[in-house]
Amino acid sequence: SGLQVPNCCEPGIATGTERNFTARVQRGSRVAYAWYFSLQKVQGDSLVILSGRDVTYTPVAAGLLEIQVRAFNALGSENRTLVLEVQDAVQYVALRSGPCFTNRSAWFEAATSPSPRRVAYHWDFGDGAPGQDTDEPRAEHCYLRPGDYRVQVNASNLVSFFVAQATVTVQVLACREPEVDVVLPLQVLMRRSQRNYLEAHVDLRDCVTYQTEYRWEVYRTASCQRPGRPTRVALPGVDVSRPQLVLPRLALPVGHYCFVFVVSFGDTPLARSIQANVTVAPERLVPIIEGGSYRVWSDTQDLVLDGSESYDPNLEDGDQTPLSFHWACVASTQREAGGCALNFGPRGSSVVTIPRERLAAGVEYTFSLTVWKAGRKEEATNQTVGATRPSVTRLRQPSIPAHPLFSVFYSMYNLQATHALPAQRGRLRGGGWHAAEAAGAPLVYALLLRRCRQGHCEEFCVYKGSLSSYGAVLPPGFRPHFEVGLAVVVQDQLGAAVVALNRSLAIALPEPSGGTTGLTVWLHGLTASVLPGLLRQADPQHVIEYSLALVTVLNEYEQALDVAAEPEHERQRRAQIRKNVTQTLVSLRVHTVDDIQQIAAALAQSM
Questions:
Q1: What is the pLDDT of residues 29-42, one digit of tens each?
Q2: Are the C-beta atoms of 436 and 405 separated by less than 8 Å?
Q3: Domains contained in the chain, CATH given
Q4: In which band, very low, low, confident or very high, does the pLDDT at 405 lie, cut at 50, 70 and 90?
Q5: Spatial distance between the Cα atoms of 574 and 562, rounded to a whole number of angstroms
Q6: CA atoms of 75 and 28, how far apart (whole Å)
Q7: Distance of alpha carbon 343 from alpha carbon 351, whole angstroms
Q8: Please, are residues 358 and 341 in contact by the beta-carbon 8 Å criterion?
Q9: Hey, how many other C-beta atoms are within 10 angstroms of the C-beta on 207?
Q10: Alpha-carbon torsion 542, 548, 549, 551, what sign?
């Protein structure tokens, strides 16, 4: 009786360490001993059975070790259970941190080898603040003053410890947080069969110190406010790293989505995000009767009504699924009860033929074609056919499906620009426009500039997107009057467009501030300072726009130069301006037709 295990046990033992165990009883003879070492580890439990008064055991992995020892003889037995922790010795800790800025939370991580399991961490951030204890290899801390600080972490467990140190530099942020907004209804409507624009209005608050980063994320969910983790949707081939998101037709399946836009300044904590609830809706089926809305047909020939060109605009041409058809004669100019007594059939195929003997000369017939398929609403179109006695070659005209009426309402536009490359961007504001049948769909605004001289005209698309308020840097007009024509075109998702504004404006060459610096020197300074800053702000729209204004100002300035009397260093400076602009433009990523057109127009000016 009195089973004991002397000198056992400390709370923990190290993995892979050989340990000796001895059992004793206070009284008894011919006593045998059995040992059961049950190790509960991550990879599964293991059991080792040993016999004898003195045994040796080596734990092979970290976990909870339960030791049962049994002493027994012919007269009875006695058991004892011991529980202790098997832990990996901390061999190495690498201390890492993110960028540190005053009055902002900075994160620190202690990468622990071989494992952070059952390791405690004590952090000292070197600024006199109280230490911090964590059970995870991560911590956050806020520094109040800039400077260099020695950070120390002590990673320890029951069998070992390791101290790691690192020096961090705490800086003062050079910029304020950006501002971002999307002026949209609570629920944005996008047509799956159309190209869609969605654009965030970003105010970087003149920050060019850090590299600006933009990111669009799309999630499949009924609402951005719905709890849970929605499924993220991939958008291959779509540029999601700029404020303007252009979704090609058929890019997203029909359904509800949450669009998230994030703008951030490099590795700083300065960031802003916004969300938009988006519904991708199917477009209506398109019934088409070959020949258009009206045809003249000879009553000496069988009349063929062909609706095989009808289609579903929500599917690619090669992925079209079968439609159901129904033909009907809904009216005729004959005085008949019921409107039309013309009988024909079968009416359920895409093409029907009406025998000529059933057509009456001088009568106009109106036929209706209705198409539908599972899960989709019926759509119908009409064609009127005039039957004539003489043999007349039938006339064909393109059959264009009717679009919903596009009505817009104009409230105000304000254009202010007198010089190219002004200190303030010319501001374009428009409001009160909407599409009659798509209240939740964003409209597309295009700012077009045209300048002419001696029968030669140049046209530029300065901006195209969904912002109804936009500040633009505009190219100058041609000498001597510097007059340009500006047009604002408002377009809905179905392609219907209206010219909202069409007016002339004089945009002269800029005048360098102070008057002590020539225009060439001033332009060269802008290419060396403003253009790199715009590249760091990472919006290609502004880079293209500013590059176009720079090079067109240079071109117009050269028209009045006496090249023969110009110093060589001035020519070299102008050549360097063109080189800088060209290199800037060719460095931009191209993803849309709009990008290609804008960049090509600017490059043509820099040649």
A1: 899 999 999 999 87
A2: yes
A3: 12-87 (2.60.40.10), 92-171 (2.60.40.10), 179-281 (2.60.40.10), 294-388 (2.60.40.10), 412-606 (2.60.40.10)
A4: very low
A5: 14
A6: 9
A7: 15
A8: no
A9: 20
A10: positive
